[in-house]
TrEMBL record:
Keyword Transmembrane on entry: yes
Keyword field: Membrane, Transmembrane, Transmembrane helix
Species whose genome carries this gene: Cafeteria roenbergensis (Marine flagellate)
Renumbered residue ranges of the record's region Disordered: 1-54
Short name of any one Pfam family annotated for the protein: FA_hydroxylase
Domain (Fatty acid hydroxylase): residue spans on this chain: 281-412
Cellular component GO terms, alphabetical: membrane
One GO BP: lipid biosynthetic process
Subcellular location, record wording: Membrane
Protein name stated in the entry: Fatty acid hydroxylase domain-containing protein
GO MF term set: iron ion binding; oxidoreductase activity
Biased composition (Low complexity): 36-45
Amino acid sequence: MEHVLASTVGAPQASGRPGQPVATGVCSSRKLGLDSSSGPAGGSPRPRPPARQGAAHRRLLLLLRRRSRCVPPTPLRPAPAAARASVFGRAKNPVATDPSRSWDFAPPLFPVAPPMGRTPSPIAWRQLWAARAVLVAALAALLLASQVIDPALQLAWTWLRGQPWYNSPFFETLQVPVVSFALYLGFNAVAAAWPEFDMRDESDQRAHGALAHQGRAVKEASWDFFSYVLPLLVLDTCTRKFYPGWVSRADWQSEPYFGWQTTRLLPEAGPTVFDLLFKPVAALLFYDAVFYFLHNAFHRVSALKGVHSVHHEHVKLSWTTTNQLTVVERVSLVLLANEALKLVQAHPLSRNVFVVLFLFALAEGHCNLDLPWGVDKLCPLYTGARAHVTHHDRFACNFAPFFAHMDALFGTSSQ
């Protein structure tokens, strides 16, 4: 084990050439609990192994560094910047376009941090736990005051049911582009106001910054309308949505399933505090668990790699990558989200809350912003942008889109 430590601090190798240090502040062998004076009988120094060091040596070195807690994990070098443009004008990831590099390629050493130019200072430990305590107290207060809040929610729901715009069969479909555009403006404003939180270096930000994506975003938004919104609008017009627990059996039998739909069959009972707080989160957990296996199959199964490869055709990750999907993948994600909402029997208003949370989580995971007050800092179970940036750089880790427990259980986490 001495040769591993010797190579890190610049000791000569077996070939006689001086070693190059890989990190500053590496712990000594004594601090790591190793006896560097021990050797073969007779006092002669322990023979060094050949100069070639494989993946096992690097894993051992990383383990020693992480266990010693003397050197923080250093970010890996970013992927090569050279890339080729597709026929649609999109810049492609060199790993995705090079036939010699497989989609399911697994690096010998998973990164401990995504490639980035600089790391923002985290918020203070006391402030973090204070914010968590405030959130838990707010949730507890809402649950305790549910007897007062639920009647108010019923009044608000009665008013919403009478509004033509909310009663329209197209409301849920049109909510997606409206919320996406609002998130686009919000993340661009944050990136412009706090560029120090961007996980790309300064040259990258100038070349692929928020302003550089605006023209491309308009083109992609037009394509998304025809490939995603327009087919769903046709389905909303021709088919009637029915979900368990929404309407009575008599209403279900009195209305034809196919036909020209002008209104939605909405229940008279309004949602409760529990419906708005926990059912959208439960649907996200179900979606995250199922999508983990689906996403893993997209990367591992040869027949499915073409379905997901478009999502990785980029040079640098940005929020516009969220909608960079094939039609097959987009439809599968929509169906999976609907099944998750059906499983928890979400109220129509809970579905609207789910759409906001779902789109925010997708955009936040692709925005390349490591915010010190982000959701991943407040909730340790949440992955955040750093984990998804690592997935887009290395492919073989962090398959779950929102939460970290699935990758931790199946050994595919980069942390």
